[in-house]
Amino acid sequence: MNVANIVNVVANADCRKMNYQVSYEHSLKSAPNDFIVHVPSQLIENVPDNIPFALVAEFVTNLILSRSPQIGKIREMRIL
């Protein structure tokens, strides 16, 4: 079982939700190696509180990518 599967299992459990403020850069799917957008601050809501803090950045990254299909890659993810 890889980390993504563990995160999905943990996230689907009944638990309280957390909000995280994050910052990151991203590219578009049409040019995945050209990081053209810097997002200085974005609120990510309803992150399950039972996800280990070490996996929060990966969970948030996967959440952003699933919600925004035009994004190619994310880098420099920071929990603020």
What does this protein look like?
With 80 residues, the chain is of the alpha+beta class. The chain has one domain. The protein has two helices and three strands. The radius of gyration is 13 Å and the shape is elongated. The mean pLDDT is 86.
Side-by-side strand order of the widest sheet? 2-1-3
What would the average pLDDT be, to the nearest integer?
86
Order of helices and strands: HEEHE
Number of domain units: 1
Topology diagram in text:
Elements: H1 3-11, E1 17-28, E2 31-48, H2 53-67, E3 71-79
Antiparallel strand pairs: 1-2, 1-3
Descriptive terms for the model:
single chain, 80 residues, alpha+beta, 3-stranded antiparallel beta sheet, 2 helices, 3 strands, 30% helix
Concise structural overview:
By secondary structure, this protein is of the alpha+beta class. The chain has 2 helices and 3 strands. The chain has helices spanning 3-11, 53-67; strands at 17-28, 31-48, 71-79.
